[in-house]
Specification:
Radius of gyration: 20 Å
Number of strands: 18
Largest sheet: 7 strands, mixed
Helix content: 25-40%
Distance between the termini: 10 Å
Bound molecules: zinc ion
Order of helices and strands: EEEHEEEEHEEEHHEHEHEHEHEHEHEHE
Structural class: alpha/beta
Length: 337
Amino acid sequence: MAYVTAPGVIEFREVPLPEPGNGEVLLEVKAVTLCGSDKHIFKGKHPAVSLPIPVGHEIAGQVVRVGEGVRRLAPGDRVAVEPVLTCGVCHFCRRGEYHLCENISFQYRVGQGGLTSHFLVAERWAHRLPDHLTYAEGALLEPLSVTLHALRRADLHPGDTCAIFGDGPIGLLLLQLALLAGCGAAYVAGRNHFRLELAQQLGARAAFHNDEIDSLAEILARTDGLGVDRAFEAAGVQQTLIQSLRSLRKGGHAVVVGLFEEAELPVPINLFIQKEIALSGSQGYHWDFQRALTLLEAHRLDLKWMLTHHFPLSQAQHAFDLLMDPEDQAMKVVLEP
Ligand SMILES: [Zn+2]
Ligand SMILES: [Zn+2]
């Protein structure tokens, strides 16, 4: 199993083959995609975790064994993992809002990362994949669910305009889903030419490089100086947080989905009153894997454009190094055991 043992260092450690207990299934891991939060961990800068820690939470695999009491799944089934752990008994779990669980955790935080050969998961957190999806696409259910949740938090309506600050996988998935939800014009701002080009191909009305162009001025100019109905912060830095607030029309709504390495940041607070804007956060997913699967089953969404690089699991160090290169040509890197 791959661990980040120090900033920038991946190390493989032997772990015993787990045995599926009551209600659990054992998977042979087939594909794991790397994500922005894995990058934060790799840098040793994730606000909620300390090193050493196993990595990998976007996981798809094949059921090889099932424990007692497992009803829906059988050996041979292809599944994606919802890598969350919830207590089931706290105030929010009992309300059915498991993403807000008081004791929420993730598999990798309690010792089980996805960059390994076998993965143990409760049946309830394993979602069967439609036949036409590859395992790598299955692994993308996790970021897709993060994105769907953020889109639902934004309450975007057909015909709305939106601005997306961040051109990583979540930013571009937001673009794809916002357009699917009827967004009339979507603008993307980021810092990677390759990804901004992809944004254009995916249907962005315009895409701006934040180091070369005043993205905010461009967005305002294209919306009659009014601003957009909805904005998404998907980069996790002060510049884009402020841009997402300033890009809003009066009464507009911004959603933060990026993870910030810096815990406290100043914001233009008077804007909230002067423009009656709103800012919401988006935490993980909550019944979003099911929605994501419905879209994928119906061929409403194609995620193949995201899967730019495939490596064997043994090259995990190389895969992370590639992701750290700011001008890389990578969207999602897939690791296959
Ligand atoms: Zn992720
Ligand atoms: Zn709970």
